[in-house]
Amino acid sequence: MDGALCIKSSTSSSTTENKRRQRQQDKPYKGIRMRKWGKWVAEIREPNKRSRIWLGSYSSPEAAARAYDTAVFYLRGPSARLNFPEFIATDTEVTRDMSAAAIRKKAAEVGARVDALQSAGHARTESRRVIEKPDLNEYPSLEDP
């Protein structure tokens, strides 16, 4: 009977391991999740409360994760576990008693900035591709090589 319990517990632990791996693939960063329609959202639970602070909806997981990092940094200080610890400014003053609205505003600013930079970079690469490809609806001129 003890052997059956050991087999069952090892099977359930491997199932738990598989579920954990699947979650890590679905959620590349802490504090974010993906909506059914493809947008990434970030939110964080307020310390010692049941309520959550909504941090926004973003087109990339990196932008949502950066918004989460900003919020957790302002809530928990420099000892917080971050997705991108290299992007938090070390000279930033941390005030522990910021309101939820102020934290939401700071996080949304960072997330929107990252989203804008990524979409601008994506637009630049797409415009280069369009310029490089010839227009197939036009007749070639004699001057074009």
The main pleated sheet reads as: 3 strands, antiparallel
Helix content: 40-55%
Low-confidence region ranges? 5-9, 125-131
Give the CATH level 1 class of one domain: Alpha Beta
Quaternary structure: single chain
Overall strand count: 3
How much is the radius of gyration in Å?
23 Å
Family: Belongs to the AP2/ERF transcription factor family. ERF subfamily.
GO biological process, one term: ethylene-activated signaling pathway
Function: Probably acts as a transcriptional activator. Binds to the GCC-box pathogenesis-related promoter element. May be involved in the regulation of gene expression by stress factors and by components of stress signal transduction pathways.
Main location: nucleus
Structure description:
By secondary structure, the chain is mainly alpha-helical. It has a domain at 27-126: GCC-box Binding Domain (2-Layer Sandwich), CATH 3.30.730. It contains three helices and three strands, in the order H-E-E-E-H-H. A hairpin with a 5-residue loop joins strand 1 (32-34) and strand 2. Helix 2 (61-76) runs antiparallel to helix 3. The termini are far apart. Residues 5-9 and 125-131 have low confidence and may be disordered.
